[in-house]
Amino acid sequence: MNPRLQNTSADALRDIFAKANSLFERLIYVAGARDPETGRYVDPLLSLSYAANDIDQQFREQHRYIFVAWLTLTIEKQYAELRRHLYGKREQQALIQKMRQQEWYERLIPTNASSAERNLFRSDFEIVTAVACSYCDVQPNPSLPPSACPRSEFQHAPGSAAVASMSWRGPTSLCLAAPRRNF
Questions:
Q1: Alpha-carbon span 28 to 109, nearest angstrom
Q2: Cα–chain-centroid distance for residue 84?
Q3: Is the Cβ–Cβ distance between 30 and 63 less than 8 Å?
């Protein structure tokens, strides 16, 4: 493997990521490059200049890195990332509903993620999109379990906004500063 080519393809990928507005957009981009049939990462533009194995390796590493970075965000910051991604887009309700479909968000999880990471991502993502649904006045996905509904009160961290109960139709107060789970 040519280290110069590998560094160049990594630099090209970082340049692409620099144009994304949020960490969430980078996660969507890198996950979307994975071919569901082969599990390999492909990018038609990068493949014009770089070897397929180098592209696959760089995307695989970046997918893992971005995914872990997403998991380390608080629920509040994950929600802000999602809102940043949705900002200015038409049909936000339909987009959120699509995101809430299991086959859509499961693609965001790298194949080498641990079971604990997968479960944390799923639960966080269901909470974040449920609140986004409430914010956009979207009906919840009936296929989600009742535990995905953010009806209960979160304990709020000192200095965060007060937390009131939330229902499917909309939060009475938006605060997502739920304590972060530690492994």
A1: 10
A2: 12
A3: yes
Residue pointed to by tokens 């956009």? 136
Give the list of residues 6+ apart from residue 24 with CB closer than 8 angstroms, or none. Answer: 70, 78, 81, 82, 84, 85
Q: For tokens 């009906």, name the residue.
A: 139
Residue identified by tokens 């604990």 is 116
pLDDT in tens, 90-133: 787 788 888 888 888 999 999 999 999 999 999 999 999 988 87
Residue that the structure tokens 């080519």 belong to: 5
Entry field: residues in the chain: 183
Predicted pLDDT of residue 13: 77
| Angle between helix 75-86 and helix 92-99 axes, rounded to 10 deg | 130
Closest CA to 174 of 86, 80, 69, 87: 80
How far is Cα 169 from Cα 94, in angstroms, rounded to an integer? 16
Distance CA 41, CA 128 (A): 27
- Tens-place pLDDT, residues 71-89: 999 999 999 999 888 887 7
pLDDT tens digits, one per residue of 13-42? 777 877 787 899 999 999 999 999 999 999
Q: Count CB atoms within 10 A of the CB of residue 5.
A: 14
Contact 124, 75 (CB under 8 A): yes
**Other C-beta atoms lying within 10 Å of the C-beta of residue 32:** 11
User: Which pair of tokens denotes residue 58?
Assistant: 């760089």
